[in-house]
Amino acid sequence: MENVRIPIPEKPIKLLDQLREFIRLDGKSYATECTYIHWIRQFILHNDKKHPKDMGNAEIVSYLSHLAVRRNASPNTQKTALNAVMFLYNRFLKQPIENLDFRYAKKSVRTPTVFTHDEALMVINNVRMPYKLMAQLMYGSGLRVSEALRLRVKDVDFNMGYIVVRDGKGAKDRTTLLPKILITELKQQVVVVEKLLALDKAQGIGSVYLPHLLEKKYSTVGYSLAWQFLFPSEGVSKDPRENVLRRHHIYSATLQSHIKQAINKSCIHKQASCHTFRHSFATRLLQAKYDLKQIQTLMGHTDIRTTEIYLHVLDDLGDKVKSPLDF
Asked: Same domain for 188 and 326?
């Protein structure tokens, strides 16, 4: 099950289990946990399984150089691996690493791939429901793949006209646009979820996965409509924490596959993916002369410089915002 934290022993003994516990206590997202564990495991394996306490600058530089020279890793990959290793030493082991003599491979400056408005609609119209609705939200609300998949019924506020993105990148919540044109279809999707929930309850399927031990605090909330995933999977799967059958959300690989097929069917010859919808969302707003700061908030960017990569399409700015799907 995606986005479900794997169980760890109550009193972890293994290094990586202890590290997982520390990361969770530090409040980092599960995606960050998985990324850090992956690169730290690779760092240990690269150095013949030596304990990190017995390693230091030389081994770190050797590993990062290996990624660049042998693995042909990008500067971003090197940076991610270094962040993970620095967290291991500086925060977890409390063995600060100083004076690291390492230089990143030169990072190329790339302009994000974006769809034209017609291209975005063409791809969307080549996807069947409910994947079409998810594609519309990625384009019309600027959602990442994981954010669209993790939406729960309660996160769509039809009365106020916005969507709440829970635990987004950097473990932050934010609000973004609810395209008016999608309200009817989203309400129909809620009806589908409600019927599926009734079927699961009748068949004795476990309640939906809840974060932060909410299930133990509120034993029945997992069967409430509000907490159900807006885009549930067709089948059920076993929760690795408790060996309980649950219905999780649609898998990211499934959505990405449908979008890739739609891009090919639309004869769009760009290096495009689900994330291209998000790039296109920001670009449409800038092209329509909307305020950069507002777009930063809607995108969930910590640094406005990240938002500024879309300025290649901008002449001047405005101050009113609506969804690209509502233009």
From this structure: yes
